[in-house]
Design a protein that fits this description.
Elements lengths: L1 E6 L6 H11 L10 H9 L4 E6 L1 H8 L1 H16 L3 E5 L7
Parallel strand pairs: 1-2, 2-3
Helix pairs in contact: 2-4, 3-4
Length: about 90
């Protein structure tokens, strides 16, 4: 299984988020950089586990859109049995 770690700190706005996701998930060139396109691409993945980390920082930057991205990951996981998604909250140590 291919494991991809998504660092929520890297997603500072919508455009950056989609560019980052395209690169990290090796999405195709025709990826439309929107939530519907993300869902479609995730549903086509095969034997991939996605670990979303630093969720609070992602939410701080993207606000409600971060929840939408997480919802897309979770919905795609429900539809695609060959996709696993783990959402975890990592924090930097002081």
């Amino acid at each position: 299984m291919n494991i991809v770690i998504i660092d929520g700190r890297k997603m500072t706005d919508r455009e950056t988020a989609h560019n980052y996701l395209k690169k990290k998930l090796a999405l195709p060139d025709y990826y439309g950089r929107n939530l519907d396109a993300l869902f479609d691409c995730l549903c086509e993945m095969n034997n991939v586990q996605i670990v979303v980390s630093y969720v609070q920082e992602m939410k701080d930057n993207l606000r409600r859109y971060a929840d939408n991205i997480i919802n897309v990951f979770e919905a795609a996981q429900e539809k695609n049995p060959k996709l696993s998604v783990i959402v975890e909250e990592l924090v930097d140590e002081l």
